[in-house]
UniProtKB/TrEMBL annotation:
Transmembrane segments: none
InterPro entries the UniProt entry points to: NIR_SIR_4Fe-4S, Nit/Sulf_reduc_fer-like_dom_sf, NO2/SO3_Rdtase_4Fe4S_sf
Taxonomic superkingdom: Bacteria
Keywords, ordered alphabetically: 4Fe-4S, Heme, Iron, Iron-sulfur, Metal-binding, Oxidoreductase
Gene3D superfamilies: Sulfite Reductase Hemoprotein, domain 1, Sulfite Reductase Hemoprotein,Domain 2
Protein name (Swiss-Prot/TrEMBL): Precorrin-3B synthase
Species this protein is from: Amycolatopsis deserti
Amino acid sequence: MLASCAEDLGDGSVHLTSRGNIQLRGLSRDTGELAARLSAAGLLPAPAHERVRNYLASPLSGLAGGLVDVRATVFELDRAVCARPELAALPGRFLFALDDGRGDVSGEDADVCWRALDSSTGAVLLAGRDTGERVPFTGAVDALVRKALWFLEVRGSAWRVRELPALPAGERPPSSPGVPIGPFTRDDGLAGVVGAPVLGQLAAADLRALGEIVVTPWRSVVVPRGLDAPGLVTDPDAPGLGISACIGRPGCAKSRADVRADARAMMPRVPAGVRMHFSGCERRCGRPHEPHVDMLAGSEGYQKGTA
């Protein structure tokens, strides 16, 4: 469905975001047909809550590693959020996370996160910081909903938990990098692969060919079954693998440059281990959370810095 919508109504591709979303771009202002198609496919199950259905979960959970399998809990959390009308008032940037204990998505600064400490208990985090509260796995959803309701009561004008003047949380627990690019062996002995489309942009035909995937917040996807990954870079040593960019010109009127073309030109010269983000303006849309080289378009070229 998403591939067809991208071909028929958008720019022919889907775009991965730093929040684990699939984005359609190049749409006309009349999005009625898109909404009708997505609704018919079951992709808009709760219109009133649509902008706040923002969930991250450890992408390899239930496939390889981790202390618990949080996959079913994501759906339980979605049902719980959509069952509370008041939660539709959460800011659209509010983010929930379920970390299976490996520390991957807990490092993404979600507003509320449950992180497994063992097979039965987890820590509740606010903006990536440990609250000291320990909650059974069976109570993870209730804890996250309770914290989201609390945020609504105290937020004032804050959009994110990290903006609260007195954040009731302590230290950041150690986190791990996102899932590595390349093949992996599942716990059941079968093979899968993690790949990244160049600059997070995947042609609709490739998306359709991939079939089942798990989208990550690192502009990559997990292909759970097999090693065939059309449209994805699966070599962890590929040059430019760590480069990302905002949409730039002509897709954004605020951008000062075609940053994607410039990023592509730079890729052959950037080793795989270097994290670099190209931005067309000071908003720096889509920039990564981890340290990176900051390439900001200016009137006379790019300003290079660190972030």
